[in-house]
């Protein structure tokens, strides 16, 4: 749904509350507009000498009543409107987040976290301001100005005088139409640069450890400084135009006041109007200056909010590019064969194909090993199996059906994917491992941890599985983090397990234990192991070797060793490296 519609719908759905609040604010301001009349009449009686102690007290009490009524009514109305604004803000943030969760990897590879945070924080806040502060001040100002005009016309001040005095104010709508679009355009640019700054800040914080290790603080400061400078420039451009706008409106108010004093004063000394009329008129004009200033404010806010609403609109219009087909069906992947035929794939906007003419079969319950140089397309292949990106139609079949005809849930529920470095959330280790199903019993969590060879390290922590991890699990070492991520994948006990270089950060002995454990636990279940080390996948039923997006060799460990090619070369290098590593300890 478009955000403009969402905003309209929200206001419509709460119209009775808004109506009530506007009524309160309007009543407060209508009462407030009564006070120039009181003072005008007081001045006339003062001049006539007809004031007594009693009437002075009476006037004071009436003025007090006006003040209290305005405070209570307008205050209550303001509270209601502000509350509605906050509710809208929370609602909008939830909707934005829900939308984010539908978007695919492609979207996130193009948009930094900082930029997305800026939508959730800055833009939503700008919209909220327009519907809380905006509605509040617009009602305030409109009612006050209207009541002042009505009161002036109802008083015995001559109409031609009222008309001449408010004449400069009639220029306001024209000024608004001149300045409005400029303010909106500049606001868009401010919000854009705010997004870029948040993005830059997020990157700098994320990489702060690298920055410190390379003593590159100065470079990073300079880079961040550039982002801040960009904001400063666009903010200043906005400030210039909005300040000018906000200065012109009160200036017109002042012009009104000058006309009032000059013309009103002239008519007073000529006795065409009374001194009371003159005081009343100047007070009414004075009363209108503050709301005029508010209107300037509100128009500024509204233009900024329109700019933010446009940005949110563009974001909400982004359609998830991975979608279920109309007739998508759930299929059980238990004992399902994986069949890949002539699969070629290039990332959107990429010049080169990352996969070329891949054909591959994984019979149910078998283990496939994938080996290859970095950038050879191993991760891309499994990403397509998870439909993180869409493979060309008919190229990947699971359980006999085109992967594009399966529901996304049946894929993501039944395939466990363990990346090289799984993100750990700032919660307990137990929750991180049981991420897929938070209510998993502790013994099951412990079993997965044992399989991933991380149980011992967790048990040593002060609160064992209930130990909370800091941001990104900083209390764990790289290898411990990787194994915690592995336990998260293993606990799913899914029909298909994909390990994408997920034992790269463990030593050879631990790796062997993990692989042996997995082979035992996953007997009869399909497993895909991607690795750079031959030791991690040599037991696979079939191993494919990839190079530049193609499968260049395939066979069992022994068959591949017997061939000349990348596999045997890597094996020789790794065996050699293994021996060299082992030698110093052997000595
Ligand atoms: N999101 C992306 N957009 C564009 N190109 C990408 C994207 N991800 C990967 N690539 C490119 O696709 C090719 C294959 O990458 P892939 O990650 O599949 O390699 P890999 O074999 O898994 O490498 P590694 O062993 O280093 O993990 C590389 O050339 C890479 O630059």
From TrEMBL:
Domain ABC transporter residue range list: 338-573
Gene3D superfamilies membership: ABC transporter type 1, transmembrane domain (1.20.1560.10), P-loop containing nucleotide triphosphate hydrolases (3.40.50.300)
Sequence intervals crossing the membrane: 15-35, 63-85, 131-151, 157-176, 244-266
Subcellular location, record wording: Cell membrane
Alphabetically ordered keywords of this record: ATP-binding, Membrane, Nucleotide-binding, Transmembrane, Transmembrane helix
Keyword Iron set for record: no
Membrane topology label: Multi-pass membrane protein
Residue span, ABC transmembrane type-1 domain: 20-304
One Pfam family recorded for the sequence: ABC_tran
Protein name per Swiss-Prot or TrEMBL: ABC transporter ATP-binding protein
Lineage: Bacteria, Bacillati, Bacillota, Bacilli, Bacillales
């Amino acid at each position: 749904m478009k955000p403009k519609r969402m905003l309209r719908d929200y206001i419509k759905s709460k119209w009775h509350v808004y109506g009530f609040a506007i009524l309160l604010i309007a009543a407060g301001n209508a009462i407030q507009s009564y006070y120039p009349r009181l003072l005008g009449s007081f001045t006339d009686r003062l001049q006539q000498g007809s004031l007594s102690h009693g009437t002075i007290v009476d006037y004071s009490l009436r003025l007090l009543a006006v003040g209290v009524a305005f405070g209570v009514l307008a205050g209550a109305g303001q509270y209601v409107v502000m509350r509605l604004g906050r509710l809208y803000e929370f609602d909008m943030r939830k909707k934005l987040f829900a939308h984010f969760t539908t978007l695919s990897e492609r979207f996130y590879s193009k948009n930094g976290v900082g930029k997305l945070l800026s939508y959730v924080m800055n833009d939503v806040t700008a919209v909220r301001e327009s519907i809380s502060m905006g509605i509040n001040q617009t009602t305030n100002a409109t009612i006050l100005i209207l009541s002042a005009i009505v009161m002036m016309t109802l008083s015995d001040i001559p109409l031609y005088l009222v008309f001449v005095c408010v004449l400069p104010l009639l220029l306001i709508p024209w000024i608004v139409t001149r300045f409005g679009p400029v303010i909106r355009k500049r606001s868009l640019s401010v919000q854009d640069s705010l997004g870029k700054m948040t993005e830059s800040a997020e990157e700098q914080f994320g990489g702060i450890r690298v920055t410190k290790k390379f003593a590159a603080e100065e470079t990073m400061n300079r880079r961040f400084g550039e982002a801040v400078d960009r904001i400063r420039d666009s903010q200043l451009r906005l400030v210039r135009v909005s300040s000018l706008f906000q200065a012109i409106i009160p200036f017109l108010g002042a012009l009104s006041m000058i006309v009032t004093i000059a013309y009103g004063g002239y008519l007073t000394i000529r006795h065409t109007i009374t001194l009371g009329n003159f005081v009343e008129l100047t007070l009414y004009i004075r009363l209108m200056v503050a709301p005029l200033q508010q209107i300037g404010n509100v128009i500024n806010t509204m233009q900024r909010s329109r700019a933010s609403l446009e940005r949110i609109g563009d974001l909400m219009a982004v359609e998830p590019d991975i979608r279920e087909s109309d007739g998508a069906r759930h299929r059980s992947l238990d004992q399902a064969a994986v069949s890949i035929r002539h699969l070629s794939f290039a990332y959107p906007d990429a010049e080169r194909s990352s996969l070329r003419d891949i054909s591959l079969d994984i019979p149910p319950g078998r283990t496939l090993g994938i080996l290859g140089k970095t950038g050879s397309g191993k991760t891309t292949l499994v990403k397509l199996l998870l439909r993180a990106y869409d493979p060309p139609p008919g190229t990947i079949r699971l359980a006999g059906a085109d992967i594009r005809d399966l529901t996304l849930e049946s894929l993501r529920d039944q395939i466990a994917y363990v990346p090289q470095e799984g993100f750990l959330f700032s919660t307990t280790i137990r929750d991180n491992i049981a991420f897929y199903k938070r209510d998993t019993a502790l013994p099951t969590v412990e079993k997965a941890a044992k399989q991933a060879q991380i149980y011992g390290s967790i048990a040593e922590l002060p609160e064992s599985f209930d130990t909370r991890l800091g941001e990104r699990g900083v209390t764990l070492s790289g290898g411990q983090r990787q194994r915690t991520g592995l336990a998260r994948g293993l606990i799913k006990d899914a029909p298909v397990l994909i390990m994408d270089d997920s034992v790269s950060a463990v030593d050879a002995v631990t790796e062997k234990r993990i692989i042996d454990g997995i082979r035992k636990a996953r007997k009869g279940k399909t497993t895909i192991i991607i690795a750079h080390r031959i030791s991690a996948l040599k037991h696979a039923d079939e191993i494919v070797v990839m190079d530049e997006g193609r499968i260049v060799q395939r066979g069992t460990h022994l068959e591949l060793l017997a061939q000349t090619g990348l596999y045997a070369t890597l094996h020789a290098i790794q065996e050699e490296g293994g021996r060299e590593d082992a030698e110093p300890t052997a000595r």
